[in-house]
Amino acid sequence: MASTSALLDNRRRLAAIVWRRPWLRTAALLVPPVGWMLLLYVAALAALFVYAFWGIDVFTTKVVHTWNLDNFREIFESGAFRGVIWRTIWIAAAVTATCAVIAFPFAYFMARVATPRVRMVLFILVLLPLWSSYLVRVYAWKVILAQDGVLNWSLEKIGLPAANIGYSNTAMWLVFTYIWLPFMILPVYAALERIPHSYIEASRDLGGRGLTTLRRVILPLALPGVVAGSIFTFSLTLGDYITPTLVGGAGSTFIGNVVYSTGLGSAGNLPFAAAFASIPLVVMGIYLVLAKRSGAFEAL
Amino acid sequence: MERRATRVGLWIWTVLVVLFLHIPIVIIVLYAFNASNIQGWPITDWTTRWFGPAIHDGEMQDALILSLKAGGLATLFALVLGSAAAFGLARARFFGRNAISFLFVLPIALPGIITGMALNSFFTFWHQSFGLWTIVVGHATFCIVIVFNNVVARLRRTPTSLTEASMDLGADGLQTFRYVTLPAISTALVSGGLLAFALSFDEVIVTTFTAGADNTLPIWIFGNIRLGQELPEVNVVVFLILLLTIVPVTIAQRLTRESGILRTE
Predict the structure, then answer these.
(1) Cα separation of B79 and B144, whole Å?
(2) Cβ of residue A99 closer than 8 Å to a chain B Cβ
(3) What residues form DSSP beta bridges with B46?
(4) A135 touches chain B (CB under 8 A)
């Protein structure tokens, strides 16, 4: 009994110490997760940068630890590689814009027109595809867009010529838009839902017509949501190689495909792959800093 | 409110978007029951005969087991680390607080190819061989934010007066945690854990860079789709995965109310 009460005393004493020094509690709680992120994740990003400035011995294919810019020179002097980078960024931007255009009216309906019940149903209908397997959804489109797939069959039924967009950049644009659309809908919805109704009434009282209110009040307030969504649509497209592999064609190589094919396998060139992967890292780094300024992170 | 024409237009747009989001999923589900081993449309003969060989496929089972192990362990790490971070940051105000929350979002905001390649370089640098544990590290790193976001949102809505009352009534820190705080955040933990598991179970880009020669279920599926082999079996597995993902998402949704991308809270 005595030992139990001594233990309890110690526990209380410890609780009292922590209670009197809140920073101690905060520190004890934060050290493990922050340590994990710094020692594993940030350190890994650092390793990526370090490898990017190393090279391999052409004969032994072993990594040589001499600092140089050869990888980057090789990437930027090659028209093919520049093309890959340009294509990836361009399609990621197109996908982001398309997602925003499709998502906005939908999110607006959810937030400001639908009854609570309908809103709830729509919510689940957006959430389910978001959380359904990414790979399965890309695969579904591969099957749909195939020569003898659903799309061509349907077009033929209504008397239109076959589309044959399987294995092309158009297919990639369509599939990426499909896959990441829920990531745009949710933050835009969250931003629209937070706009107080009094703002819209005030705009109307001041003589703002529907379109003026939309342009001058609703769109600016929804912008952080759009930016938050765009982080996902842009970043996820930028770093993908699955969709280009499955539905892309001969001229659809993405940054991800180059990293994948050079980074893995026996004929691999890890430093070169690391250099290539650090290009989207720089692009996203700039994008994230800008996005954070606009307050988008609160909308995630 | 909006004019009638605007409302009708928005209704139609909404229905079209819902159809766009769901028709592909319905179509791929139908293929699980396609009697032909050619992936054409329309499907003429229906069968369930691919279910047997798909479920008994040894490679598929190995991949499934690895996915379950990795998902379970990653979720466990994410629950511990994510909720610790949430408790540490929920009410604290100090310099660098925003930098720390930014740090947790980073693995999910950066393209998968970067996270994958970075971890690959890191493990190679330390001569760490690839396998279950390297997969777990990768998955836990991007699952932490899911738990973190769910728990932080719940803590912000739980009044501090509850824990203070518990302390006033003589409970020590552990008792307060056990009887007051934990019940208040339990559903947020469950939904965060379920979503973290779902994310890990489905991940393929980071995993290819951290798995070495091992196959998780998504890698097995990707390999078969790319090479166009065993597609009838893949169709069945894909159907079963879709069925399985409905469960955690609906439970998570029921346990909590509003939602962002990374949380159902």
Answers:
(1) 7
(2) no
(3) B34
(4) yes
Q: Is the dihedral angle over the CA atoms A239, A245, A249, A255 positive or is it negative?
A: positive
Q: How many Å separate Cα B47 from the centre of its chain?
A: 31
Residue A274 to residue B117, Cβ atoms within 8 A: yes
Q: What is the pLDDT of residues B107-157, one digit of tens each?
A: 888 888 999 999 999 998 898 889 999 999 999 998 998 899 889 888 888
Query: B197, B192, B249, B194: which is closest to B71 by C-alpha?
Result: B197
Phi, psi of A82 (to 5 degrees): -60, -40
Q: Split chain A (300 residues) into runs of 10 and give each run's mean pLDDT.
A: 65 72 83 92 92 82 81 87 93 96 95 89 89 90 89 86 82 95 92 86 81 83 90 91 90 90 77 90 87 68
Q: Angle at the Cα of B141 (from B140 to B146), degrees rounded to 5? A: 80
Lookup: tokens for A9: 């005393």
Q: Summarize pLDDT for A146-176 with one digit per residue, the tens.
A: 888 888 888 888 888 877 787 889 999 999 9
Collapse the DSSP code of A269 into the 3-class scheme (helix H, G, I; strand E, B; otherwise coil) and give the result. coil
Chain B contact set for A232 (CB, 8 A): 109, 261
Contact B147, B187 (CB under 8 A): no
Instruction: List all residues of chain A from 165 to 204 with a beta carbon under 8 Å from chain B.
Output: 178, 181-183, 185-187, 190
Q: What letter does residue A298 receive in the DSSP assignment?
A: G
Q: Is the pLDDT of residue B263 over 70?
A: no
Residue at A295: amino acid letter: G
**Structural Rg of chain B based on CA atoms:** 22
Euclidean distance between the first and final Cα of chain A, in Å?
Answer: 52
A109 to chain B, any CB pair closer than 8 A? The answer is yes
Yes or no, beta carbons of B41 and A153 under 8 Å apart: yes
Q: Which residues is A55 bridged to in the sheet?
A: A64
Chain A positions touching B177 (Cβ under 8 A) are none
Return the pLDDT at A295: 66
A41 touches chain B (CB under 8 A): yes
